[in-house]
Specification:
The complex is a heterotetramer, with 2 copies of chain A and 2 copies of chain B. Chain A has 12 helices and 7 strands. The longest helix of chain A has 24 residues, at about 280-300. Chain A has a single domain, classed as 3-Layer(aba) Sandwich (Rossmann fold). Chain A is of the alpha/beta class. Chain A has a 5-stranded parallel sheet, with helices on both faces. A two-stranded antiparallel sheet of chain A has the order 4-5. Chain A is globular and about 75 Å long. Chain B is α/β, with parallel strands linked by helices. Chain B folds into 2 domains: about 5-185, Rossmann fold (3-Layer(aba) Sandwich), CATH 3.40.50; about 200-325, Rossmann fold (3-Layer(aba) Sandwich). In chain B, about 35% of the residues lie in helices and about 20% in strands. Chain B is built from 12 helices and 14 strands. Chain B has a 7-stranded mixed sheet with strand order 3-2-4-5-7-6-12, sandwiched between helices. Chain B has a 5-stranded mixed sheet with strand order 9-11-10-13-14, with helices on both faces. In chain B, strands 1-8 form a two-stranded antiparallel ribbon. In chain B, strand 10 (about 205-210), helix 8 and strand 11 form a beta-alpha-beta unit. The radius of gyration of chain B is 19 Å and the shape is globular. The N and C termini of chain B lie far apart (about 50 Å). The chains are: A alpha/beta, B alpha/beta. The complex binds thiamine diphosphate (2 copies) and magnesium ion (2 copies). One magnesium ion (MG) binds near residues 143, 144, 145 and 173 of chain C.
Chain lengths: ~325, ~325, ~325, ~325
């Protein structure tokens, strides 16, 4: 099993943190495609802790705040950043962007800009895994806000009924946009709902990444064995919902407290206090990661825009004719007269 | 087996059966597709032959059924999801239009979603406003979704087989009024190609462009027009609305100079609008009259059989309208 | 509180039973509009037991199997039967039929042919009740099959969050068409789900109507007080899903056992054994009800079909122009040429 | 207050504010409409004035939001539900099309559903395939639903006020590209009546029929056509698509003999198809050319700004197309 020692977990979390900081920078520099950029700063242990237990061949979907998860599953930061910039060199040739990034090679069945939209796909992937006897698990990552969506319950019910190798991971950063979880439900103990549908269900605090790994180990094993699982991971969304949101709806004090629950710093402290790594080593690692992510920014900015003609590509399979452009069609029609 | 007397319903089952036999990745899922055999009996007994792992009875969760099919299709299966009534498509439109239809595009061509969503629509059973609709226009208006609507027993078989070979998601809408219709299927014959319209009746005076059950209404009307009024109407069955076979429509309309489009869906912003607009654009200089739309009334469907029947085009309305085109 | 003595409850249940038997007859005589008729035979205690606790001004929605509920709330059997026959004399002038019957006077916001479709409306009615300080409760009646629909969970979550005077009543007749509840979920203890969303939740056996009344009394009081409630009532669907379904997917033995759970006979027995009514009285009552329901059939059959022109009425408010009929429009267009 | 310099966004807020002040039964509900003030700021601060019982923040449950509005509207409230993006309509289509739209009809006229569903659509923010669509055709194809789409600051105010007086459900679609547009509102002036189109520019050579943001593109194009090519194009803003004001369209087209329809929605089976078909039917003998459709490409929207912008009609495409109509 890769990436489960604390130094490894720290490294992965730091990569996520730094990547997200660079995404913010890309935006500030006016180089991102739009402002719909949702940073997962503060949630790194969820992404890294769960992905530490995923294997080659496993599949997953994410919500709109999925950069960290994808990175933790092995994504190339260059192609990610290029996609976020809407470039042809990105994972999806600039068509998907931050909210619709995917990579079949890594089992990433797609991020989703529809809250809850990616959840049922893992049920289907679970059917495939069973059919193919591949031993793979499929994991749906989503936010606390997605617990408002009925499709989550439909999907959990099916997974439990069919005993599929499926896991539901709810990254509870306490907010859906400006709505705190206790303003969105009368019972914020989210795992209780999953239990009521017959899933193995737990909530874990995301402060210590190792706790997340422990919970993920337990539940993913159950899921792989045909008892679908649900894991809620408590954390805090450090910044606004998207790049332009300054979270005016939150008290400063709350934010201060919330940002103290920093899984990256927590792991760093622990590495230091346990003597697993010293400051120099950590600084060197952080620097190396900073360079990696700087390079991703450069790669993104240097990338070409997609070609205009690519607009009509991939609506249907490459074997099929492309849709006729409006302009071509109009020319043909007007040429009659 | 080759040539076979059968029904629309059984031809559909035959197509599913053969697909499941020849391709192990084909699975069926939906409400009552297994033990019950499908609300209209299309999947009868398939569970006995292929087992509950491939013929999957689901809870009543339309949105997740479609979403499950999307995920299955992305990971190597060829799911045929069933939506018991097309009227329930409203619950699935996000999974259908934002997921299935857009995944290939959003992800830059990395992967397709080769699934089929079988469903049925139309009037004819006094089932009321929520079980009698013809909602194909929602699908036709959604780029990325193919749309097949068989009118004949042969097409029930061949179009479904072809749908199961498409690389992209296909919405396959049967008509509840056709299930017991009899006809023949020749499984070995070369079928009309996917995406091609089928000229079921030639006629030099007028082209009636239609699909699904209205094909039969149009054929009845064409017969009346011929025998009672000496008007020769061609009847073209589109078979698929996406792709739309305009290459077949164009020369027919150019020759006849008159076209009528017939659809059971409500008129406003429906399939008939698209067909009329397109024919007009492409064949304007050849048209003697405006393209005439005969379509469903812009109202919900009543449970009262009298109101129900008159809410959608009838053979009489088609014939009467055509006759008025030749004053 | 009306209708809560056992003789009254029996009378209401018998009315439902007899009405449904007559609906079956209407179908057999070819006088119903179509075959989409869903009889609630075996479920009478659910309808009667819950409705016994509803008051004037309360509102409700039902599923497609809602004749009994509507009747128990005071519907006129004549107009119900006429609607089921698709006649102008029915509650909805033959437009709605069995599955879309409603009466605003009795607070019936509508039956629904969409499984789960009527559920969220009670949340809205709950908002209205609170806004109007009317003290009314709004009750959603639905089947076990509707627990597959995500909108149920969305609605329960909202009701609990907003503390609305709303009650969810799940009539668990063990089947959704041919699917037994344990084939539709891994955890058939349906009330647990509601509890996980923060509702007051119970399951009650429907055999004894008085048990249903007791549970409904408790939960409806809570709902009226702002703690929304969920009640699952266990019973058995005596016959097929709809008129043409012979339930080939059920074992005969199971059906035999199931039909022993007959709340109408159970109440009758109890009336006899406790001496509250004797056989002669019961027979007289049953006869009177039979005559009432026979009259409903006659009324339905005698009713006029709706007028053709009514087809265009009530798409929009009466103050608005009606949609132009296709025929009129075609005539106008063709008259140009 | 009377005449007021404001923005599209603030004009909408003004309309909501006044409606809430004058009618105690008006409530707002939706995701982030309260504390956050709406994703695009339309409902900013209304919660402060009217409280959380009338400005209701909901969980992320689009289907139940619409369903709740339906129930509230049936029991005496006048709910304004907000769907943050029209792209999410797929989750609500059952509640919208099978419930809200059909309740009056199915129940034989007993009751209406006087609710407004506010939402916004269109391109312009690199928001990608699931946040940039123009889905009004789904609504226009559904009998029972009214459909209003304001293009101007005045209409943002007046159409919303009027929508709040309709006896039937209104889907009210704003355009995300217009929120910061400036203009004036005269709250005391007699507005253009509900259901009437507004001729924003006269012109004898060609009629451009459009709505929502494309009105502005058409006006720019008309200006270019006039100044650079001497072509006089009229620009008609439909304002509501249901009701559709054909009485205003007809004489304009009959006079000009040439018509173009412009819509941001995808072309196939979209609003442009309906408009083109209808104009052709009704004005056939007056048309020199086929009615030309300038509409969205039949593709999903990309996040890349370059591809996004070119996926929908631009002023340049409108002008260029119009020019070609006069060879
Ligand atoms: C179906 C749908 N509804 C609403 C939105 C708008 N929206 C985007 S993110 C978001 C909040 C999601 O909260 P959560 O699931 O907790 O994820 P987080 O942003 O906290 O990571 C909302 C309401 C959307 N994108 N899709
Ligand atoms: C949305 C939707 N899906 C499927 C159906 C078809 N259907 C009608 S009733 C039914 C079973 C419902 O079961 P349940 O909720 O338990 O109610 P019951 O029939 O047992 O009273 C199904 C699947 C429907 N009408 N609506
Ligand atoms: Mg969150
Ligand atoms: Mg049931």
């Amino acid at each position: 099993m890769k990436n489960t020692t604390l130094p490894q977990l720290y490294q992965e979390m730091r990569r996520v943190r730094t990547f997200e900081e660079r995404v913010g920078e890309l935006f500030v520099r006016g180089q991102s495609a739009g402002s719909m950029l949702h940073l997962s700063i503060g949630e790194e242990s969820a992404a890294v802790g769960v992905c530490a237990r995923m294997r080659d061949g496993d599949t997953f979907t994410t919500h709109h705040r999925g950069h960290g998860i994808f990175l933790a599953r092995g994504a190339d930061p260059d192609r990610m950043m290029a996609e976020i910039a809407g470039k042809d060199t990105g994972y999806c040739h600039g068509k998907g962007g931050s909210m619709h990034i995917a990579d079949m090679g890594l089992g990433h069945l797609g991020a989703n800009a529809i809250v809850g939209g990616g959840i049922p796909a893992v049920v289907g992937a679970g059917l495939s895994a069973r059919h193919q006897k591949s031993g793979a698990v499929s994991v749906a990552f989503f936010g606390d806000g997605a617990t408002g969506q009925g499709i989550l319950y439909e999907s959990m019910n099916m997974a439990a009924l069919w005993k599929l190798p499926v896991m539901f991971v709810c990254i509870n950063n306490q907010y859906g946009m400006g709505t705190r979880i206790d303003q969105a439900t009368a019972n914020p103990d989210l795992h209780e709902r999953a239990a009521a549908f017959g899933l193995a269900a737990r909530t874990v605090d995301g402060l210590e990444v190792e706790d997340v790994v422990e919970a993920a180990t337990d539940l993913m094993e159950q899921a792989r064995g045909g008892t679908p699982a649900f894991l809620a991971i408590d954390c805090y969304r450090f910044y606004g919902h998207a790049r332009k949101d300054k979270s005016p709806y939150r008290e400063e004090l709350e934010e201060e407290e919330g940002r103290k629950k920093d899984p990256v710093l927590q792991a760093r402290e622990k590495l230091l206090t346990t003597g697993l790594m010293d400051t120099a080593e950590l600084d060197a690692l952080d620097d190396e990661i900073a360079r990696e992510m700087d390079a991703a920014i450069d790669f993104a900015i240097a990338g070409e825009e997609p070609q205009m003609q690519s607009m009509f590509r991939d609506v249907y399979a490459p074997t099929e004719p492309e849709p006729e452009p409006v302009r071509t069609r109009l020319d043909r029609i007007l040429a009659q007269g | 087996m080759a040539l076979q007397e059968t029904t629309y319903r059984d031809a559909l089952r035959l197509a599913l059966h053969e697909a499941m036999q020849t391709d192990d990745t084909v699975i069926l899922l939906g409400e009552e597709v297994g033990r019950y055999g499908g609300a209209y009996g299309v999947t009868k007994d398939l569970i006995k032959e292929f087992g509950a792992d491939r013929v999957i009875d689901t809870p009543i969760s339309e949105a997740a059924i479609v979403g499950t099919a999307v995920g299955a299709a992305m990971t190597g299966l060829r799911p045929v999801a069933e939506l018991m009534y097309v009227d329930f498509i409203g619950m699935t439109m996000d999974q259908l239009a934002n997921q299935a239809a857009k995944i290939r595009y959003m992800f830059g061509g990395q992967i397709g979603v080769p699934m089929v969503l079988r469903t049925q629509g139309g009037t004819g059973r006094s089932a009321g406003a929520q079980h009698s609709q013809s909602l194909e226009a929602y699908v036709m208006h959604t780029p990325g979704l193919r749309l097949a609507m068989p009118a004949t027993v042969e097409d029930a078989y061949h179009l479904l087989r072809q749908s199961l070979q498409q690389p992209d998601p296909v919405v396959f809408i049967e008509h509840k009024g056709l299930y017991t219709m009899k006809g023949t299927v020749d499984a070995d014959a070369e079928p009309v190609a996917w995406g091609q319209a089928n000229l079921l009746r030639a006629g030099a005076d007028l082209v009636i462009v239609t699909y699904s059950r209205q094909v039969h209404h149009a054929l009845v009307a064409a017969q009346t027009l011929h025998s009672e009024h000496g008007i020769n109407a061609a009847v073209l069955d589109l078979r698929t609305l996406n792709p739309l076979d305009f290459d077949t429509i164009r020369p027919l309309v150019e020759d006849a100079g008159r076209a009528m489009v017939v659809s059971e869906g409500v008129m406003t912003c429906g399939v008939a609008a698209e067909l009329a607009a397109r024919i007009t654009e492409e064949c304007f200089d050849f048209l003697e009259d405006p393209v005439v739309r005969v379509a469903g009334e812009d109202i919900p469907i009543s449970v009262s059989p009298l109101l129900e029947q008159n809410s959608v085009p009838t053979p009489e309305l088609i014939a009467e309208t055509a006759r008025k085109m030749f004053p």
